[in-house]
User: Fold this.
Amino acid sequence: MQSRNDNATSETAILGADANGLAQAAAVLQRGGLIAFPTETVYGLGADARQPVAVAGIYAAKGRPSFNPLIVHVADLAAAEALVTFTPLARQLAQAFWPGALTLVLPLRPDAGISSLVTAGLTTLAVRVPDHPVARGLLREFGGPVAAPSANPSGRISPTTAAHVLAGLAGRIDGVIDGGACGVGLESTILDMTGDPVLLRAGGVPEEALENALGGLLRRPTGDAITAPGMMESHYAPRGTVRLNATEPRPGEVLLGFGAVAGHLTLSRNGDLREAAANLFDCLHRLDAMSASAVAVAPVPGHGLGAAINDRLRRAAAPRP
Ligand code: TXA
Ligand code: MG
Assistant:
């Protein structure tokens, strides 16, 4: 396998989620290549966060706007402390929720050694310790910080299986570790902890759990600056149009059901939000595979993981650029 960051010509290796696969994947990262790997949230597209050319390869493979900064994945809190400056409150959250689906935005340490392409020039860095045996094994084997956005072409549906990754990025990345389907199925919750906690993105850790731990309400971003550019309106988009809060399909529509609203595909028959989260992106990928040109989606309640599910559905339904 050769490291290759821009051309869409060579083959993408499918690596096993065993010691041999992890060793091969770590070697590719070391020489500046791109490896997609499973986390508990979604598959990430990883590169060594210290190698600018490797990080540039992520942007190239995804076709991602260069102003959109990346999350850095590390093996544990100690490794995160070497990259960013923690406040006591941020450390308390890390201890409570890591490893897990929580990303913290904190001031970047000047001596962190992270490529400025990772932060897109910001003075802050988003860090997370993933809770997946393959991700953790890879981080241990590699022994450094791994920058990894979701392993999908920019603006499209996030991958929750190795097959989803290959459907979007085959030939554009060096390899993918096949670790099966992701358990959570939604990206991490992102909190800006550089001041009072601000919720930048709803995700796999429900807001209510964070507010319990913080003993207070989370603020929302103010102003119109794109503080977390994943908050761009159109995102997570299947190819067909998307209509929300539908209880039955109109002619030509494929219905994505939930609970009592049974669809052609259903997020969760018994209305379980965890199951719906885990199924969401796979259902959207399957709608694409069916060439559905019009999709109607049943109402999903907004509490717990429902907040993040509805966030992704709204973006899937937003006008396309
Ligand atoms: O679950 C996840 O978070 C997955 C897995 C692979 O860890 N990763 C993921 O990455 O969703 P991505 O690149 O698709 O989304 C990262 C989000 C973007 O919205 C980006 O703008 C935001 O994190 N972000 C990164 N660094 C930031 C920073 N310094 N300040 C504010 N937002 C930041
Ligand atoms: Mg993404």
